[in-house]
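Researcher: Please translate sequence to structure tokens.
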Amino acid sequence: MRTVTVVGASLAGLYAARELRAQGFDGRLVVVGEEPHAPYDRPPLSKGFLTGGAGEETLALGDAEETDELAAEWLLGVRARGLDVRGRTVLLDDGRTVPTDGVVIATGARARRLPGAVPAGVHTLRTLEEARDLRGALTAGPCHVVVIGGGFIGAETASSCAALGHDVTVVEAAPLPLAGHLGERLAAACAALHDRGGVRLLTGTGVRELHGRRASVTPAAGHRGRDTVAAVELSDGRVLPADVVVVGIGAVPNTEWLAGSDLAVDDGVLCDDGCVTRLPQVVAVGDVARAGGVRSEHWTSATQQPAVAVRNLLAGATVDTTRPVPYFWSDQYGTRIQFAGRRGDGDTVRITDGALDEDGFLAVFERAGRTTAALAVGRSRPFTRVRRELLSAQRGLAPV
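Model: Translation complete:
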């Protein structure tokens, strides 16, 4: 291959570029990014960046020395709008085209939004720009914050807002946040963190409508400006005062630009266990990749998939596969939550350290005498040991 184009300049895209050079690719390397920024770390956006503890300078994933070593052409601030597979060309929104022999798709996902128009003061949190906007809104003084969605992003955002002294309510449509991932018993233990952090959690109810307060008329323009959010009306009739609303209801993979490319897309780019699409010269990694039937929006997937994907891309066929042990973490209310493994519905739960009603615990999921997954709340050290055992078991090695 003479040219490889990485479409997506976030975590997975950067790791793909690193792997291309590390695995000996010395041709032209082009990295296309929709955002104007060099690759940056997203997890701090809902935590330290939001509370002011981490500045933008701490988010960078690389440095000038590495940029020089990669010797890549960085096309930032421009969106890919198409992939011409037969013409071997990536089409850009500004009219430019990038001839290429191989493509790494790393376009990630975007925050899912509420349908229809929304008043000002309603935020999502996925990109640096979105985090800047939200942080600006939260530094104007104490206010009422309503977080829609009780998943990890919603919980982390609620935690940060509470730390800033705001009055915070989390609204979750399901009877219990994260019950599908953790089971009801452990999900309830995690949900209790909201109460300990002084945040109200309202479950089993959706959002019927966002109410806005009328904006002032601009005489010169002769029309009224955009309304500002004032309250959230729930599906059960309750009305919550709101100066700031944060929507954390999941993410949507960025695949629209691949329409007409002959690639298979269904909640992500479909690829095999080696991240190879139906076309061997195109691989997908990170949040946008549905590898082996699973799309995982976790940091570890974005950092582990590129090595295998690039190996297969350069080989022109699937010669290696990856099925990393799922792992994610979340920092909320001064406590770290960690999960690793693949939990099944019939797995039994055993608390091996601490207790559910204490300030922390380690729970292991077991099936047929074998550990399948682990959840820790404030128990990082024993969790690391169990995670290491899970990794060893997957490799077919004896636990260390």
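Researcher: Any highlights?
Model: The first strand starts at residue 3 and ends at 7.
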